[in-house]
Write a structure and sequence with these properties.
Blueprint lengths: L1 H18 L5 E4 L1 H6 L2 H38 L5 H26 L4 H28 L3 E4 L6 E4 L6 H7 L3
Parallel strand pairs: 1-2
Antiparallel strand pairs: 2-3
Helix pairs in contact: 3-4, 3-5
């Protein structure tokens, strides 16, 4: 009985050893990589400078609106209903214009986003290509980014089981 158990265990271990494939895994620190690239630092500085100027412009506009509102508050008792309504409409229109300016500058498809794409994405693409080339050259199957919540930077396509999961789900 003992020899039979030993034979089965040996057979299983040998069989698993032949079919199991060791995966090579590595990690990087993307922040460290990007911060060591001069062009990336320059791009970040330029983006910060642009964003800072736009924030100042928007704050100045809000200050102007606040001043106009304070004047309105002081003069409101002397104004006719029609003049009050006109004043209020002007203030509301200016607030809407400033909110629209914020959206144009800082929104998901705004000017800052587009500028970031223009300046930073080529650098990120170059870094990603270097990671992919390194992984291929060194035989890595997975590379993770310890600085990111998204985690995986590179994965060998042979380990992608997405289609198999979709099949199991009937899709």
């Amino acid at each position: 009985m003992r020899s039979l158990l030993f034979a089965i265990t040996t057979l299983l271990i040998t069989g698993l050893g032949n079919t199991a494939e060791a995966q090579r895994i590595a990690y990087i620190d993307m922040d460290k990589i990007l911060n060591s690239i001069t062009e990336y630092q320059q791009a970040q500085e330029e983006l910060d400078k642009i964003a800072s100027q736009w924030r100042q412009d928007i704050a100045l506009e809000y200050d102007n609106i606040k001043s106009q509102y304070n004047r309105y508050q002081a003069e409101q008792v002397l104004l006719s209903d029609q003049e009050r309504q006109k004043y209020e409409d002007e203030i509301i229109a200016k607030e809407q214009a400033v909110r629209e300016m914020q959206k144009r500058k800082f929104g998901p498809e705004g000017e800052l986003f587009k500028k970031r794409q223009e300046l930073v994405e080529p650098i990120q693409a170059e870094v990603f290509q270097a990671i992919t080339d390194y992984a291929d050259d060194q035989g890595y199957d997975f590379i993770f980014d310890k600085a990111s919540s998204s985690g995986m930077i590179f994965a060998n396509a042979k380990y992608d089981v997405t289609d198999k999961i979709l099949q199991k789900l009937g899709n």
